[in-house]
Task: inverse folding
């Protein structure tokens, strides 16, 4: 991507980095603030584009409720065959690590805020799906933000899960532990990397807060300073005579439509034809192109016959009213359209004993009446890990759906683990229904 090119008013400054879904470029917004532009690789289908729009739209709706820890989205635009995501400016943690500008305090801050953001995203029924140092970024104020949420999975047509995010967070903790020079800090991060899959992100967040003394400089100020020191200042304007293109692919058109509002009250819609209320003078002029005087004269000529028709019109109006009442009664007597309802839950656990540092894969089979809707459910584990309410969208015609749970176990010893799948709604009884199964671990 060439320096000086603009995308929807955001001027590229020349600094780029590769991503799993495309190429990021630093940019300047029309008001001179740092921004980021992600050009997606043109290797995906029209269906993938729709999933991208849905994923970005979900992020925007989350951000409308207040800061949630996701990289703020400015727009998603298309120019011919290219699609561009425009965001606030940020610096990838991978770049800070590569430049040696991430100390122990910064590493702990990255993990702490990333865990908090993932908890909020999971509570909203979403997941990230591609968490690593390249998709964790630092904003201008030092806030740790998540970029590219759901994008890689959307392109591939895959489903991202909270369990995958926890495993990715654990891997991130291990990577940052290796970069820490302080023995105590590295030990805490290594422990977090090992314990996260079993104990969950909330416990890891609380542990990092309790171990603040092991991470001098923990907080956003150090990260903000590290990010500012990584970039050279960008001139606010192009040199005289430099060429600026509207976009490499032509005029950019937004792909986001999140207004969700009715037509503006100031918009006027005029309809003409049978069954439409009597036209006003303005409407008649619009339809026939007559002058106001001609329309007024026509109305005067039609006034006398109108009086003679008044009785027949009244009778016709009464008959029409009776027909409408009968139609409403028939409509009210029609049975309502069926909605999604869950009638059964069946949980299957691994039959074989899970060995050292293994994983127990559960499958919850939910039986429905085949209608479309959204299932709300919880996976409850016997290790007292806090359950997370999740949602699964069901298409019409699907009479069953699989809800998986992956339980990672580490360490020596033996125990029996039980997982319960509880469907909260909608159920045929109106009450939650559940089933459970157990596995054995030996090491």
Result:
């Amino acid at each position: 991507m060439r320096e000086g090119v603009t995308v929807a008013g955001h001027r590229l400054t020349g600094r780029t980095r590769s991503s799993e879904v495309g190429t990021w470029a630093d940019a300047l917004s029309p008001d001179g603030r740092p921004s980021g532009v992600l050009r997606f690789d043109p290797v995906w289908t029209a269906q993938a584009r729709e999933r991208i729009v849905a994923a970005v739209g979900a992020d925007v709706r989350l951000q409308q409720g207040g800061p949630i820890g996701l990289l703020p989205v400015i727009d998603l635009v298309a120019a011919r065959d290219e699609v561009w995501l425009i965001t606030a400016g940020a610096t990838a943690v991978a770049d800070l690590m590569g430049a040696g500008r991430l100390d122990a305090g910064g590493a702990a801050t990255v993990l702490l805020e990333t865990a908090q953001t993932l908890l909020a995203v999971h509570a909203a029924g979403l997941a990230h799906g591609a968490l690593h140092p390249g998709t964790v970024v630092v904003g201008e104020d030092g806030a740790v933000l998540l970029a590219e949420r759901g994008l890689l999975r959307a392109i591939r047509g895959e489903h991202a899960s909270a369990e995958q995010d926890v495993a990715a967070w654990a891997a991130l903790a291990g990577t940052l532990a290796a970069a820490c020079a302080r023995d105590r800090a590295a030990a805490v991060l290594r422990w977090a990397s090992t314990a996260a899959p079993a104990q969950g992100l909330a416990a890891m967040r609380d542990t990092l807060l309790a171990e603040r003394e092991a991470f001098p400089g923990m907080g956003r100020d150090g990260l903000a300073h590290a990010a500012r020191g990584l970039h050279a200042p960008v001139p606010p304007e192009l040199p005289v005579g430099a060429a600026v293109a509207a976009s490499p692919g032509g005029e950019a058109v937004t792909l986001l439509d999140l207004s969700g509002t009715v037509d503006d009250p100031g918009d006027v819609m005029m309809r003409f034809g049978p069954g439409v209320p009597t036209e006003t003078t303005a409407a008649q002029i619009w339809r026939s192109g007559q002058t106001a005087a001609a329309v007024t004269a026509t109305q005067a000529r039609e006034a006398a016959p109108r009086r003679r028709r008044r009785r027949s019109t009244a009778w016709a109006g009464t008959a029409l009213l009776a027909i409408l009442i009968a139609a409403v009664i028939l409509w009210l007597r029609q049975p309502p359209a069926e909605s999604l309802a869950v009638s059964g839950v069946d949980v299957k656990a691994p039959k074989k004993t899970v060995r050292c540092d293994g994983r127990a894969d559960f499958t919850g089979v939910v039986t429905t009446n085949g209608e479309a809707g959204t299932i709300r459910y919880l996976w409850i584990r016997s290790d007292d890990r806090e359950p997370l309410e999740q949602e699964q969208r069901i298409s019409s015609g699907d009479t069953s759906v699989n809800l998986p749970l992956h339980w990672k176990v580490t360490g020596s010893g033996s125990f029996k683990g039980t997982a319960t799948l509880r469907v909260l709604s909608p159920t045929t009884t109106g009450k939650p229904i559940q089933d459970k199964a157990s596995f054995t671990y030996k090491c």
Summary: The two ends are 53 Å apart (CA to CA). The chain is about 35% helix and 25% strand. The first helix runs from residue 46 to 64.
